[in-house]
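All the exercises in this workshop are built on plain-text protein records. A learned vocabulary of local backbone shapes supplies the integers on the structure line. Once this layout is familiar, the rest of the handout is easier to follow. An example says more than a description, so a record of this kind follows:
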Amino acid sequence: MGVQKFGKESLMEKTNRYRQAGVDIDEGNRFVQLIRPHVKSTFRPEVATDIGGFGALFKMDMSRFRKPLLVSSTDGVGTKLKFSFLAQKYDTVGIDLVAMSVNDLVVQGAEPLFFLDYFATGRLESGVAVEVIKGIAEGCRQSGCALIGGETAEMAGFYQAGEFDLAGFAVGVVEEDDLIDGSKTQPGDIVLGLKSTGIHSNGYSLVRRIILEQMSLGVHDMLPGMNITVGEEVLKPTRIYVKAALAMAATGGVRGYVHITGGGFYDNIPRVLPEGCMVRIRRGSFPVPQIFDVLAKYGEVSTDEMYRVFNMGIGFVVIAKPESVAAIKAAAASCGEEVFEIGVVEKTSEAPHVVME
């Protein structure tokens, strides 16, 4: 059988059939061109590729390191996206996506190097998708990492109309001798907390149930006792702590870092505590944003559960040497962060745990 040749008209007809099936190749190509300036605005000098290739290249400057460790993290935005769809606001969830990965990297003292995103939808709408990518680029600029590549998947019939999903993957690097893992934490160390912007990106299944179902509010309704709409409050982007965390680490006084995500205080802090150590947190030592009071009241959620599900106003925790507290606070403040002394490390004969008082 001879080689079959397709003329321009035949190829267009086949492309039209694919478009009729729900996938528009031309729209995908247009989207790439629209996001190009946003993506390139995040490039670091080590980026050795352009967007649109099959793989992204990053040339590390190995002269900076003696024993470098690569650190990786992946995450998504989760059901917070439902509020984005309802509000038709798409420019902040990309920041959330980056934050959830880079905040996990810097917990170990790692500098984020590059980020890749995965955007999946039933039908690609370039206007919406560009807003999302603009947010991702902003998150990368805030954390100093390059948006080096990604994937846009158009899967007709797989997602509800107007909906999409996001996932991201970040890679960072830390000098082995500078790794922060909490292993040197000891009784008497001071626990500091950095202020959150609000709910961040965890607990949204409960948030949606309370606000949309139990309170019967829409995204454009005002929250009771708060001068803000539901959408404006719950779509505040996750705070990115990278610059402050790297500055605090440079003081040499950090024993451990904790990113307060799903599991809140009770499940996240013990992850960096060595055997024989527990943390006592003082309630009232930091301001709790009003949104958490609203959720607890109208959702009838116990205080203990609130501190296990949400960050309660503290998005990032620092375990510090007592003699380094002043220097660490100054480093964080220089990066625009509010820091509170929220607790202390104590000795225990039990497994590492947290006590709230």
Notes: Strands lie at 68-76, 111-121, 146-154, 164-175, 190-195, 254-259, 277-281, 314-320, 339-347, 354-356. The radius of gyration is 23 Å. The chain has two domains: 8-178, 190-356. Confidence is low (pLDDT under 50) at residues 1-8.
